[in-house]
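#struct-pred
JK: can someone run the complex with beta-D-glucopyranose? inputs below
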Amino acid sequence: MKSRKIMAIAALAFAVALLSFTGCSNNEVIGKDTDDVPTYKNPDASVNDRVEDLLGRMTLAEKVGQMAQPDQDFLESDEDITKYYLGSVLSGGSSDPPSNSPEAWTNMYERYQKMAMKTRLQIPLVYGVDAVHGHSNVIGAVIFPHNIGLGATRNPSLVEEVSKITAREVAGTGITWTFAPCVAVPRDERWGRTYEGYSEDPALVGELGAASVRGLQGDFSETGNIISCTKHYVGDGGTVGGQDQGDTQVSEQELRDVHLVPYRDAIEAGTKTIMASYSSWNGEKLHGHAYLMNDILKGELGFQGFIISDYRAIDQLEGTYKEQIVKSINAGIDMVMIPDRFKEFISLLTESVEEGAISEERIDDAVTRILRVKVESGLFEHPFVDPSLSAEIGSDAHRQVARQAVRESMVLLKNEGDVLPLSKDIGRIHVAGKNADDIGNQCGGWTIDWQGGSGNITVGTTILEGIRQVAGEGTEVTYSRDGDGADGADVGIVVIGETPYAEGEGDTQSLALSSLDGQALNNVRSAGIPMVVVLVSGRPMIIGRELNNWDAFLAAWLPGTEGAGVADVIFGDYNPTGKLSYTWPRTMEQIPINVGDDNINPLFPYGYGLSY
Ligand code: BGC
Ligand code: BGC
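RT: done, structure tokens with the ligand placed:
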């Protein structure tokens, strides 16, 4: 960044020299010079001067374009970007380039950015993706534990490092914006997005969310820094019954004490963008909530960045599309994740300004916020990929950090007779269970596809492969998915739990173990050998009396691609330090159950976690 700045200055000096050489008078040179390099493109001008200069040059059509964010899947042609002056494009959960490789992502990004560079003012696109646990749409990128696992680490500097690496892998494909961190404070495990939250405790969520913002953004002095998006504002984790996109029925005091806390921390850490929540507060949808967005977020908390809507979320407000646009923009939304009908959006937003339903001041405010983020993040200087970063995607160095994150996220909940750690001299280990040898299952939702998927979806090490790597040379590791053939082994390791889901698809009334898991457990148990159970899941599950049959029990959450980190704990190369960041219920009826509630009798309390 620094050296490019110097180059830009040198180029400017060269242009000035050239103009003087061609015999212009000094005055003319200065006049020409300002025309050639407008203030908004001058990296040495102040952010305010650059933004003000640019805004002053823009037509209404150009301003409205900045506020629109279609999904690339819905562009009819690349020319749409130029023609409609689009300010942003996203790739939603499954909106991948046809061949999903880092190179394909980079090419797609650069193709779109070139179209933005063809516009009159050459305002770069800010491209957004859900890099929520690594660059998680991209095959071959390193996948970190989901936030619930990072919450158990209680380690902000690790979370900062994880986010920094995520940013570098995202930037390695040219992309400059991730819709992360999610700072939901999930209060009900029936919610399908529980794993996206670090903890049920607002203070821990705030601490780790702020660490993530710092890791992603740095101070924008490096090309590997990207823009964070703290989401989903506000109360997404507090809905009745844990219903996704539901209604959070709490007093203003409780909203502030539980759900608003992490936003204060994220803003203090410098988060540049915030996403509004699909959910409602006491019956009123957030996307139309002027009090919560204009007054609290931008007013009281002094948020200077911009607010983006969620995916097709303004469409859930009452009225016609035009009324939905007017309501949400006036309530404080600055950029709309449309994602399909962007032509309609642009013409209706333009009409609403011309008719006075949305003031020009409101448009100027929204566009100023968007441009400020683009300028501050260095996008004007670096609209295209820094190729040195591309080489880092999925590197060993990055995988080592992910493996460390896995180790620290593991929570040891039971260890009768010190069955763990396993000795590396042990004769034979039998591994079983549907989550033992499945990269997709151990990554969970928001991995390659929106909903994630089972099987060999990306590059990584399964838990079984990790056990094979870390076990001693003389140890035999056998495996059967259903637990058959465990007889005669010295120990059984059964890896069970959930299979991938995202958002409302994961809402559930039952967190019981599946019959498939029951079968694997029974088969290993009938071999009469000590049994270690590893649970791969996005939340605590109801394990009931099963626990009595298990000698050791480890919660692995959704560890991502580095399954060897699980093995490091099993064999004692890492002495477990993870602590529950959620209260573990005994029964479904106990939910919601949270630390600080009166008279709770959880299976394992908040903060529980054993070591060797
Ligand atoms: C989710 C957001 C996500 C967005 C873009 C929405 O459905 O709620 O968390 O960032 O889609 O994929
Ligand atoms: C997209 C996601 C989005 C979801 C919203 C999916 O088709 O891929 O990004 O979050 O729709 O319902």
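RT: quick notes.
The chain is about 35% helix and 10% strand.
Confidence is low (pLDDT under 50) at residues 1-33.
JK: thanks, will look after standup
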